[in-house]
């Protein structure tokens, strides 16, 4: 099925199985995923959405892959609250490709056992070396029954051809909805800041942490001051992410500020800093940060 209408694609997604949506910025992936979800709910099906768009999250905070089990309209109205999270540590789809692939595959595998339909929404990077690498390996590990590629012209053809040729997956292509109103960069940044603010809403508790609780492990002799404002994923003993935290250095002591301390057994380092006042972010290179190279 190629160059189909959004209505027919929504019907195809709602028929069952695992569907993955790919496309560039503001091509309507999330809108189509929600359209298909509403149709499936109307047919009495349970949908599990996996939100792998780390920079423009709909489910859970940015820098994570979120999962939501949707059984009724109430669940759709509360998408910001995830049922499960997997920490990635970046809002840039071109960075930390391995972490994004692993997080998406883990959430997709978990989702298969929770609903009749799984819908995977992906990042806006879908072309070039980084985009093709990301989509190839996500497809390889998530094993979707179909991929829906949304495009304004023919910009998705290289990745579509690659997925068909190497992985034999059904790819449905469609143009973007002409009525779709793209967000400006400022609107996108404001939306992301609001999501971070919600994920790190007070009251925040300061927990003193040791170097041994981190992944990757902190090198011996590291100046903790270099970790000020670095974003972390708060992990439990099952490998699940409980939520987000921010590192703080004071008087040679390292602490994490978080609102999800109960059940915390470790911290995963992100590759970004986050200002707790403005919730604006900046990318960092962990290797340079910890080893100075």
Name the descriptors.
2 domains; 293 residues; single chain; 8 helices; Rossmann fold; globular; seven-stranded mixed β-sheet; alpha/beta; 27% strand; 14 strands
Note the topology:
Blueprint: H1 6-14, E1 17-23, H2 29-42, E2 47-51, E3 64-70, H3 73-76, E4 84-87, H4 97-112, E5 117-121, H5 128-142, E6 146-151, H6 157-167, E7 170-175, H7 185-199, E8 205-208, E9 214-215, E10 230-235, E11 241-250, E12 253-258, E13 266-274, E14 281-283, H8 286-291
Parallel strand pairs: 1-5, 1-6, 2-5, 6-7, 9-13
Antiparallel strand pairs: 2-3, 3-4, 8-12, 10-11, 10-13, 11-12, 13-14
Helix pairs in contact: 1-2, 4-5, 5-6
Description of the structure:
This protein is an alpha/beta fold. Helices cover 31% and strands 27% of the residues. The radius of gyration is 19 Å and the shape is globular. The mean pLDDT is 93.
Estimate the helix proportion, in percent. Answer: 25-40%
| H-E string | HEHEEHEHEHEHEHEEEEEEEH
> Judging by the overall fold, what is the CATH architecture of the largest domain?
3-Layer(aba) Sandwich
Strand order of the largest sheet: 4-3-2-5-1-6-7
Number of domains: 2
The top level CATH class name of the largest domain = Alpha Beta
Give the CATH H-level superfamily of the largest domain.
P-loop containing nucleotide triphosphate hydrolases
Summarize, please.
By secondary structure, the protein is of the alpha/beta class. It contains eight helices and 14 strands. The strands form two sheets. Strands 4-3-2-5-1-6-7 form a seven-stranded mixed β-sheet, with helices on both faces.
């Amino acid at each position: 099925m190629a160059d189909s209408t959004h209505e027919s694609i929504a019907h195809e997604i709602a028929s069952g199985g695992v569907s993955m949506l790919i496309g560039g910025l503001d091509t309507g992936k999330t809108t189509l995923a929600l359209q298909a979800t509403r149709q499936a709910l109307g047919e009495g099906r349970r949908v599990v959405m996996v939100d792998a768009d780390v920079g423009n999250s709909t489910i859970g905070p940015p820098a994570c892959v979120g999962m939501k089990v949707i059984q009724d309209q109430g669940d759709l109205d509360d998408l910001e609250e995830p049922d499960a999270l997997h920490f990635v540590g970046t809002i840039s789809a071109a960075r930390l490709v391995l972490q994004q692939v692993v997080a998406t595959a883990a959430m997709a595998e978990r989702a298969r056992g929770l609903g009749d339909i799984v819908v995977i929404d992906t990042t806006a990077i879908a072309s070039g070396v980084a985009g093709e690498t990301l989509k190839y390996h996500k497809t390889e590990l998530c094993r979707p029954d179909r991929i829906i590629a949304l495009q304004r012209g023919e910009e998705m053809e290289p990745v579509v051809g690659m997925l068909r040729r190497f992985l034999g997956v059904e790819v449905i292509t469609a143009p973007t909805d002409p009525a779709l109103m793209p967000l400006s960069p400022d609107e996108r940044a404001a939306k992301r800041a609001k999501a971070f603010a919600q994920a790190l809403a007070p009251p925040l508790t300061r927990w003193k942490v040791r170097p041994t609780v981190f992944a990757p492990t902190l090198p011996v002799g590291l100046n903790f001051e270099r970790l000020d404002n670095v974003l972390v994923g708060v992990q439990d003993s099952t490998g699940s992410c409980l939520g987000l935290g921010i590192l703080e250095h004071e008087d040679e002591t390292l602490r994490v500020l978080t609102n999800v301390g109960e059940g915390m057994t470790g911290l995963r380092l992100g590759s970004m800093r986050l200002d707790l006042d403005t919730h604006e972010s900046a990318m960092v290179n962990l290797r340079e940060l910890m080893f100075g190279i």
